[in-house]
């Protein structure tokens, strides 16, 4: 009976759906296990073979845990708000909801083909009101909460108001030491409503402030850093300027310490943890105040800097402030004004990323000086793009002797460099290593760096010019997007006078008023245009009713929905809560989370923050959302290339056609080993056309490599097989009006070049899983994806190996069926057959627990070969083997399980246990050598004596040929290893 995978897969897909095989409910009699995938943003292009890698791995693991007796939650949904759908809407006028719905249908169809065991009854779509109602609800909780440093957790804002009402309040300094305005002359009750709300904004975990953004006036919108190239918009090449815009933020910085400490207890890779630690960037040092001197007028406010190296203060010979620093105008002298304004305009045209990556040294002198508090020297204050307003205090003390960046700046502008650390006793130490003994540094001379840091901090605090400080590189998370296709903010404004401008125009008078929970969801309305309004507001400003109701026109960012979706899967249909307490208590946190490493900082950090916040409010019983994290590698594409040849220095066309050559010819041209004359010769041979070289190529010396140039042209990989181009298909695919000449090799083939790189439509190297499944079946596709290599590693897709997996499945099928039909027997297996079975169980279970799915596939292949060699088709062997294979190949195993007479799905069976007695070795097969060369094999009992082994070996006919029944000179027997006979 033939293995017809298409019929089998269609049959069981329908069965699983109709019988809700994968639907799960809470069951207190079973241990729970939560397996989660990072849900996808569905694009119109659908899945390529790289996308399902993590899904296949998680599905195998989820199926395995079910078979092991766990109640497994394995859901799937859609990160359905996003920029791609909105951009498509701008271009075509198609509503994003329509393109999103079509994309979801496409993804779902492809996922069902692959045979995933998702519980689709728990599907969520973040763009649906019944989901984002609760995103809005959590936002309101953040808005109405503050972080109490005394209790070290979030609390309702009402507890803060109680504190403020009880006494004349004095605001504590915030973490970044920004001075907050306060009025200690007024009691809380004497403040206006606007003053109270402005005050509370300094504490709310969701708050409004002004922030630098990339504003493109031509497009009328704010652009992200990745939408800007060379200081201009990637779309249209329009100028960009940095402007301050009113934005919403989440005060994630309050959780920095907890986010750091929590990493210690997570089963995540060291690399992933380090990325989060670096992003948070906790550092210890000192906050130091430098008095400022300006020729314009007296400057009361000092320049504050945070430094991790206060010991180097004696080497601080100048200061640098960011172009956004609040003292720029104060410090700029009339003589420097024009130059400073010109430089700031340049800086504002660049993104933070561009400024940090700039290799060229740029800057401008303000005309003012600061006083080094330890040397009492006046040191110049510069503005430079490498100092960013959003990091630290926006100002640094520059120590060119101990900082590479400062050194280059000092050398460019001729500033003093004072050596302050002797590192001669530390060979190999770099300029920025924290080692050495202090020199030219007054009272800390001779101290080691670590001791000098402590001594200087103590002196700074003694003098009252600063204090010991812990600083964080992490900044509060921007939470506003000037987009349409996103969650609306549940905020109205109580407008006092005219609405405040979106761009900074002084303090805001507009008071945000949160909607009450009964008004949720605030549903995204229709708009007349998906384009931004042009004045910095989002497309929602195009809806007259929306504006009339004073609703916020910005929408939430993509990470809003993805920061908590794992909780909604626990109770997705609940209209009264984001999830009931008993269901959260049952499923708790995610046991294993599969997803790409590209989300190391953004999604994972925000999710941890949101979960900690909900934990503080008693809404979830666990502080960390994801116990174990698995970052699958990338399946890369194998791109193919043909090569265009251009003839240089010719007076007229050699041929009117475009000349396309194979890799071999292109390589020779690049190396100077192929001449124009040889190209002409190829054209003549393949076209039969005679070309007068002298007529078409400039007269002079024979043409050399310099007369030709070669450029790569990508070609669709569907037209290439093992690097050989399908010439007829390629010719048919080209546009009919294309005039080209394809130069073949002498044997009539065309070999393409190749390169392994990211799989992408733009690279024409995308492999559609539908095509693979149609040709080989879903079980083959699943197992081949795992067979490619370890789950964490990136690897290229290569069709060459897929036939081996396909052959394995057919060979496995033949254990049950032959040409005559069903061949499974009820006979009792032999010990050798049981040994194959239980050896496989043990290997597979260990591999799955370690996520070594690639070696599991190999183990199944070995077992199938061994059972085939034993001619084993016994039910007691094959039935439990099916269960072990089921997580990897759910379709073929379901079919064969049913054929064995089972009524329930194999995916509800119990995973077989290993019987160790069959794994105990009682014999060993020895290679028998004569004078060191293998001549025979013999299987002997494990506990055989040397004398008995000798007797049996010498009795072998193959050995008698060499010994002639004579006593050997020596008989070497190493139990369990070797036998060597010396004659």
Quick recap of the structure?
It is built from 32 helices and 37 strands. By secondary structure, it is of the alpha+beta class. Helix content is 33%, strand content 19%.
Write the layout of secondary structure elements.
Layout: H1 5-18, E1 32-37, H2 52-67, E2 71-73, H3 83-92, H4 96-114, H5 129-143, E3 145-148, E4 153-156, H6 157-166, H7 193-200, E5 206-216, E6 221-223, E7 228-229, E8 232-233, E9 241-250, H8 256-262, H9 270-280, E10 282-293, E11 303-307, E12 318-321, H10 328-331, H11 337-348, H12 352-357, E13 364-371, E14 378-383, E15 395-398, H13 404-413, E16 421-422, E17 437-438, H14 449-463, E18 466-472, E19 477-478, E20 491-494, E21 511-514, H15 544-548, H16 559-562, H17 565-568, H18 581-587, E22 590-595, H19 602-616, E23 626-631, E24 635-647, E25 658-661, H20 663-670, H21 676-687, H22 693-696, E26 708-715, E27 720-721, E28 724-725, H23 727-733, E29 740-743, E30 753-757, H24 769-776, H25 778-787, E31 795-796, H26 802-813, E32 817-818, E33 821-822, H27 831-849, H28 853-869, H29 875-885, H30 890-899, E34 923-930, E35 933-941, H31 946-954, H32 957-963, E36 970-974, E37 978-982
Helix pairs in contact: 1-30, 3-4, 24-25, 25-26, 25-28, 26-28, 27-28, 27-29, 29-30
Q: How would you explain this protein's 3D organization?
A:
With about 1000 residues, the chain is of the alpha+beta class. Helices cover about 35% and strands about 20% of the residues. Strands 10, 11, 12, 13, 14, 15 and 18 form a seven-stranded mixed sheet that branches. Strands 24, 25, 26, 29, 30 and 31 form a six-stranded mixed sheet that branches. It has a four-stranded parallel sheet with strand order 2-1-22-23, with helices on one face. Strand 1, helix 2 and strand 2 (about 70-75) form a beta-alpha-beta unit. Helix 25 (about 780-785) crosses helix 28 (about 855-870).
């Amino acid at each position: 009976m033939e293995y017809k995978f298409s019929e089998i897969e269609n049959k069981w897909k329908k069965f699983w759906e109709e019988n809700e095989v994968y639907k799960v409910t809470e069951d207190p009699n079973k241990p729970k296990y939560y397996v989660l995938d990072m849900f996808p943003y569905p694009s119109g292009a659908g899945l390529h073979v790289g996308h399902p890698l993590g899904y296949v791995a998680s599905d195998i693991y989820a199926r395995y845990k079910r078979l092991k007796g766990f109640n497994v939650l394995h859901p799937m949904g859609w990160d359905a708000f996003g920029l791609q759908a909105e951009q498509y809407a701008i271009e075509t006028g198609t509503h994003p909801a329509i393109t999103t719905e079509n994309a979801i249908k496409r993804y779902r169809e492809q996922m069902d083909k692959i045979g995933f065991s998702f519980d689709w009854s728990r599907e969520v779509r973040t763009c649906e009101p019944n989901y984002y109602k609760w995103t809005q609800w959590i936002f309101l909780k953040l808005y109405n909460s503050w972080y109490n440093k005394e209790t070290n957790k979030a609390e309702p804002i009402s507890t803060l108001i109680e504190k403020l009402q009880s006494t004349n309040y004095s605001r504590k300094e915030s973490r970044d030491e920004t001075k907050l305005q306060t009025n200690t002359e007024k009691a809380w009750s004497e403040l206006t409503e606007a003053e109270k709300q402005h005050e509370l904004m300094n504490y709310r975990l969701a708050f409004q402030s002004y922030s630098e953004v990339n504003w493109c006036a031509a497009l009328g919108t704010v652009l992200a850093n990745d939408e800007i190239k060379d200081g201009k918009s990637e779309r249209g090449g329009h100028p960009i300027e940095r402007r301050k815009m009113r934005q919403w933020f989440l005060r994630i910085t309050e959780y920095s310490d907890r986010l750091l400490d929590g990493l210690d207890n997570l089963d995540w890779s060291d690399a992933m943890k380090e990325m989060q630690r670096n992003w948070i960037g906790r550092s210890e040092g000192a906050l130091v105040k430098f008095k400022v001197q300006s020729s314009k007028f007296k400057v009361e406010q000092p320049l504050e800097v945070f430094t991790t190296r206060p010991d180097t203060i004696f080497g601080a010979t100048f200061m640098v402030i960011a172009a956004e620093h609040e003292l720029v105008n104060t410090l700029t002298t009339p003589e420097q004004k024009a130059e400073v304004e010109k430089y700031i305009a340049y800086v504002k045209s660049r993104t933070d990323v561009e400024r940090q990556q700039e290799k060229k040294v740029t800057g401008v002198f303000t005309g003012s000086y600061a006083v080094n508090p330890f040397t009492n020297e006046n040191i110049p204050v510069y503005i430079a793009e490498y100092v960013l307003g959003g990091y630290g205090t926006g100002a640094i003390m520059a120590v060119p002797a101990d900082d590479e960046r400062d050194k280059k700046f000092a050398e460019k502008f001729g500033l003093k460099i004072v050596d302050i650390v002797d590192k001669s006793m530390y060979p190999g130490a770099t300029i920025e290593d924290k080692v050495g003994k202090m020199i030219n540094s007054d009272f800390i001379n001779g101290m080691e760096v670590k001791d000098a840091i402590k001594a200087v901090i103590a002196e700074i605090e003694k003098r009252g010019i600063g204090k010991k400080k812990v600083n964080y590189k992490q900044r509060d998370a921007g939470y506003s997007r000037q987009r349409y296709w996103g969650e609306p903010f549940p905020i109205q404004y109580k407008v006092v006078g005219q609405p405040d401008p979106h761009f900074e125009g002084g303090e805001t008078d507009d008071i945000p008023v949160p909607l009450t929970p009964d008004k949720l969801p605030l549903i995204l309305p229709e708009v007349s245009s998906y384009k931004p309004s042009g004045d910095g507001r989002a497309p929602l400003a195009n809806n007259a009713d929306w504006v009339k109701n004073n609703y916020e026109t910005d929408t939430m960012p993509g990470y809003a929905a993805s920061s908590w979706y794992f909780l909604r899967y626990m109770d997705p249909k609940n209209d009264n809560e984001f999830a009931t307490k008993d269901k959260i208590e049952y499923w708790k946190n995610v046991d294993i989370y599969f997803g790409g490493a590209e989300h190391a900082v953004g999604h994972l950090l925000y999710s941890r923050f949101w979960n900690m916040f909900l934990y503080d409010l008693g809404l979830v019983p666990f502080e960390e959302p994801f116990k174990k994290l698995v970052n699958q590698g990338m399946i890369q594409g194998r791109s193919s290339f043909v090569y265009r040849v251009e003839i240089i220095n010719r007076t007229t066309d050699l041929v009117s056609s475009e000349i396309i050559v194979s890799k071999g010819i292109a390589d020779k041209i690049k190396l100077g080993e192929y001449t124009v004359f040889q190209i002409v010769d190829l054209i003549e041979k393949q076209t039969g056309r005679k070309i007068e070289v002298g007529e078409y190529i400039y007269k002079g010396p024979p043409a050399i490599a310099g007369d030709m140039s070669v450029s790569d042209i990508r070609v669709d990989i569907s037209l290439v097989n093992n690097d050989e181009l399908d010439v007829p298909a390629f010719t048919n695919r080209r546009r009919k009006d294309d005039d080209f000449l394809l130069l073949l090799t002498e044997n009539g083939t065309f070999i393409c070049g190749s390169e392994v790189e990211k799989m992408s439509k733009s690279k024409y190297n995308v492999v559609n899983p539908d095509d693979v499944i149609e040709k080989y079946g879903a079980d083959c596709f699943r197992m081949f994806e795992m067979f490619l290599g370890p789950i964490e590693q990136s690897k290229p897709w290569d069709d060459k190996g897929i036939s081996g997996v396909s052959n394995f499945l057919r060979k496995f099928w033949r254990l049950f069926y032959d040409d005559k039909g069903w061949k499974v027997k009820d006979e009792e297996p032999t010990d050798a057959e049981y040994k194959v079975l239980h050896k496989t169980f043990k290997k597979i279970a260990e591999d799955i627990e370690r996520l070594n799915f690639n070696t599991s596939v190999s183990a199944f292949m070995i077992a199938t070969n061994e059972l085939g060699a034993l001619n084993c088709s016994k039910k007691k062997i094959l039935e439990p083997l099916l269960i072990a294979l089921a997580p990897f190949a759910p379709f073929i195993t379901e079919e064969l399980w049913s054929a064995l007479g089972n009524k329930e799905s194999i995916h509800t069976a119990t995973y077989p246990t290993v019987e160790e007695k069959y794994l105990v070795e009682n014999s060993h097969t020895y290679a028998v050598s004569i004078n060191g060369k293998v001549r025979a094999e013999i299987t002997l009992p494990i506990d055989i004596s040397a004398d008995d082994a000798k007797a049996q070996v010498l009795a072998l006919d193959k050995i008698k040929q060499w010994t002639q029944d004579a006593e050997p000179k020596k008989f070497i027997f190493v139990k369990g290893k070797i036998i060597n006979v010396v004659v």
